[in-house]
Amino acid sequence: MKKYFLFDLDGTLTDPKVGITSCVQYALQSFGIQEPDLDKLEPFIGPPLKDSFMEFYGMEEAQALAAIEKYRERFRDRGMFENQIYPGVARMLQILSSRGFRLAVASSKPTVFVEKILEHFNIRQYFKVVVGSELDGSRSEKSQVVMEALRQLFGENPILYNEVYMIGDRRFDVEGARAMKVESVGVTYGYGGMEELLDARADYIVESVDELQDFLLRELCEVRPRGFMSVAGPMLFPFLLFLLIRQAASYGALWLAMNIEPHVPEGLWHWLYYREAGTGELGYTGNLGSIMSALSFAVAGLALIPTALPVIREARKRMALSHLRRERPVNYLLALLSGGCAVLGLNLLFDLTGVTNSSAAYQAVAQSQLSASLGVGLVCYGLITPLAEELVFRGILYNELKRGYRLPLAMLVSALLFGLYHMNLVQGGYGFLMGLLMAYLYEYFGSFLWPVLVHMLANILAYLLSNTNLADSPVHSWPVAIVCAALTILGLKLLDSHKRKLKGPVVE
């Protein structure tokens, strides 16, 4: 959980355009440079003044320093107060401070000016530390400012880099955060804009003060400590309802199948029914059994949609605040690779260790499912069943658990319930491990489509593997199982590293 927030000043807390650009215009005039359009001077907002004068007007260092003196000549008396605080900032700071977060300002502007501006807008009391550059030009790099802010904020205690956000509107803020190995939050309502922040690889990007406030408060909002029953009720009632409706729908499907049998065309009849040799008793084939099973899942899933959709939508709204940064395309490939390798590796592991052959319950389930034709099995067990189960387990159970408990515990309990639900050792162990993976990818991408997609992928691959001569092929070997396990772990580690959970360097 992030507890320490470093805020840039210009373009993040306040809009300094008129003051800064007017003072830059005043400084340029002293060099005989006329710039009537203040909009063209917006790039001066954010970075160190010396760098901007040298970059945009080709000044030598001595000229840039002289320009800064002229700039400050006007800024001290007028420009500092030609400024306005962004609507909602004061309220946001008050809320964050009251919730126990420790706030600091890390600005490229000289500290003496930052202090006066904060006092002018009556928000100085919310910050434990205020750090800027020095009037003599030292500590002008954003990384140096961030380093000093962290040093003052933590004092003699170790710096907890993983608990810090640097919040700003320009690439300099992002680069300063990265140099100190803390995560950055870019704000587009300032002067950098979305493209600049994306190019700078900001960890997160928000578009308004309200969105920034929601983002910073999201962890407090996600976990609402409640009693067991207040969590179990919203979680277990839909689960039990799903089981009851599915059972009732199974009986209904069987009744329907038996009653329409006389009206089924002969060509289709043999695909769905058979009669026992000798007794003539009517039975149904694996195709009809799979269709009835899928129908029961579909009915139960449809019945839970009014309950599941509001929970999923609320979860998506909360999770969106953690997924504002555009995902790298390679992350999607890594997720699919990890999912596919996990499916193949687990199937091989259970088969090679003899677990599948030792479970009579699993053998009965497998025989029932595999007695259907390939197309029917893929549709019923690869598409319909996973979607219905995901509505229950990740859509409702996991999201309800997450509202009452921390993420790791919610993942663990939901995966455990998913494993127990299968009622046999093989599918239970497989379901538990895949449940963990599906919950992880749900959190990683912030989309309910991911657990659904991975669940479908897992069932389809497992069904195809069971319908092939896998046991007689070179794939059926310990080396392949080990490679699959290694690729799964590697893919997940790469995914995790791409989220940039960084440990900071030691600061002397």
Q: Would you list the SSEs in sequence order as H and E?
A: EEHHHEHEHEHEHEHEHHHEEHHHHHHHHH
Distance between the termini: 25 Å
Main sheet properties: 6 strands, parallel
Shape: elongated
Average pLDDT for all residues: 89
**Strand percentage:** 5-15%
Give the strand line-up of the largest sheet.
Answer: 5-4-1-6-7-8
Provide the structure class: alpha/beta
SS elements, strand count: 10
The tally of helices reads 20
Using only C-alpha atoms, the radius of gyration works out to 31 Å
User: What low-confidence regions span 5 or more consecutive residues with pLDDT below 50?
Assistant: 222-226, 500-508
Structural notes for this entry:
The chain is an alpha/beta fold. The chain has 20 helices and ten strands. It has helices at residues 17-29, 49-57, 61-75, 89-98, 111-120, 142-154, 171-179, 193-199, 209-222, 228-260, 266-272, 286-320, 329-352, 355-358, 360-370, 374-404, 407-421, 425-445, 449-466, 478-498; strands at residues 4-7, 14-15, 84-85, 102-110, 129-133, 164-168, 183-187, 204-206, 273-275, 282-284. A six-stranded parallel sheet has the order 5-4-1-6-7-8, sandwiched between helices. It has a two-stranded antiparallel sheet with strand order 2-3. Helix 1 (17-29) packs across helix 3 (61-75). Residues 222-226 and 500-508 have low confidence and may be disordered.
How would the blueprint of this fold be written?
Elements: E1 4-7, E2 14-15, H1 17-29, H2 49-57, H3 61-75, E3 84-85, H4 89-98, E4 102-110, H5 111-120, E5 129-133, H6 142-154, E6 164-168, H7 171-179, E7 183-187, H8 193-199, E8 204-206, H9 209-222, H10 228-260, H11 266-272, E9 273-275, E10 282-284, H12 286-320, H13 329-352, H14 355-358, H15 360-370, H16 374-404, H17 407-421, H18 425-445, H19 449-466, H20 478-498
Parallel strand pairs: 1-4, 1-6, 4-5, 6-7, 7-8
Antiparallel strand pairs: 2-3, 9-10
Helix pairs in contact: 1-3, 2-3, 6-7, 10-12, 10-16, 12-16, 13-18, 13-19, 13-20, 16-17, 16-19, 17-18, 18-19
